[in-house]
Amino acid sequence: MSREAISDTIAAIATGQQVSAIGIVRMSGKCAIEYADRLFRPYRGGALRGQKDRKLVYGELRNRDGELLDICLCTVSRGPDSYTGEDTAEFQCHGSPMLLRTLLEELFRLGARQAGPGEFTKRAFLNGRMDLSSAEAVIDLIDAESEEAVRNAAGQLSGAIHRRAEAVYSMLTDMSAHFHAVLDYPDEDIEDFQAEQYRNDLTEAVKSLEALLKSFERGKFMNSGIPTAIIGLPNAGKSSLLNALLGYDRAIVTDIPGTTRDTVEERVTLGGVTLRLIDTAGIRDSGDMAEQLGVQRSLAAAENAALVLALVDGSREAEPGLDRVLETAAAAERSIVLISKTDLPRKNSLPGLPVSSVSGEGLDLLSEEIRKLFPIPQVPAGEILTNARQADAIKRACESLRAAAEALDAGVTPDILLTETEAAMEALGELTGASIREDITERIFSRFCVGK
């Protein structure tokens, strides 16, 4: 997008449409401060256009006819030293949705337009205030549901991924520049190729990027949550466990076997890990068509889950069909067998982690087991990949770097080696946004909420 295309002034409510103590309306663009100055009258310090950047100014918010709308705060930041790199203004009003909409309409009448999803952050990216990996971290930070996700997103927002990629990109730039110089000016006195040094540089680059790529296995669950199927025979306590982990009654619980006919999904943080809990229908043979459809969905949920919690009712003798439940759990990528209803007299001796949804016994141990199954990688803050697009770019960069190293070992001509290094640079450019198609950029920022 050209600079001319983003020179207009945008405005949006940044705090949602619900009633709240504070409501924020923000603007960005060449007329942002002018429009704010026409509606806001500071109590001290003169007109808003003369106030210092990032200073909260107390005053009256009035419409174009001079009618008082609110007594509130306003702040301005002049480009390029603002979030978007442009002139910005932000009103901090009382949180009435009607008031905020009225203010927004006043700004539209002055000439501002409604901001699109993520347009403030998109302008920050286009104006060079942040790279694309940092911009994507903004939505991760907004959506974060665990402390781990918050810390990682904040680290990426500060440029952790960019710094790792930039170090490799800079090395490849120097290497490519040397290759071009030697190839284009063979008669000049230019230092010849240092094969051993290049080999070491390529090896270190691959190690650095592979370390990022390995973190994606853990990171892909950080924001979306780990798909976790709760399976068992009918009336084993699956829905009760779901309710106990959530802390409220989400699923219907009765003594009648087969109450759950379909999957019920909720999110919960356990052991510092966000789980996407899927309560399933009891696994058993039945002549009831609806129940059998539920059983099929239970088995499908277990097959697609990254974690299976298999419940065995400890208050009952081992029952027919239990082997099928345990076999399903054993076939899963990761599974934990839970002996449920430990608040009742124990009637079987099957191995498993004892839990009670009534007393809460064993839930802390379950939390620890989950933490062990999904350990947090010991890497600097922000260096856990959570984004499939970024992971794909790094994977392609690694493949090209390995091919370049192999070409160097094979003693091929420098132009073939140069082709691979430039392909790696192209992939890294997609990671940071230095080289990326506009349609991909549009798709990335469409995930954002309006006002961010």
What does this structure look like?
- This protein is an alpha/beta fold and 452 residues long.
- It has three domains: 4-130, Gyrase A, domain 2 (2-Layer Sandwich), CATH 3.30.1360; 136-215 and 382-433, Four Helix Bundle (Hemerythrin (Met), subunit A) (Up-down Bundle); 222-373, P-loop containing nucleotide triphosphate hydrolases (Rossmann fold, 3-Layer(aba) Sandwich), CATH 3.40.50.300.
- 45% of the residues lie in helices and 17% in strands.
- It has a seven-stranded mixed sheet with strand order 3-4-5-6-2-1-7.
- The radius of gyration is 29 Å and the shape is flat.
- The model is unreliable at 251-261 (pLDDT under 50).
Write out the CATH superfamily name of the largest domain: P-loop containing nucleotide triphosphate hydrolases
Shape: flat
Radius of gyration: 29 Å
Q: Please write the string of helix (H) and strand (E) elements.
A: EEHEEEEHEHHHHHHEHEEHEHEEHHHH
Helix/sheet category:
alpha/beta
Distance between the termini: 18 Å
Q: Report the mean per-residue pLDDT as an integer.
A: 85
- Determine and state the CATH class of the largest domain: Alpha Beta
Model regions low in confidence, pLDDT < 50 over at least 5 residues: 251-261
Strand order of the largest sheet: 3-4-5-6-2-1-7
Which fold name corresponds to the CATH topology of the largest domain?
Rossmann fold
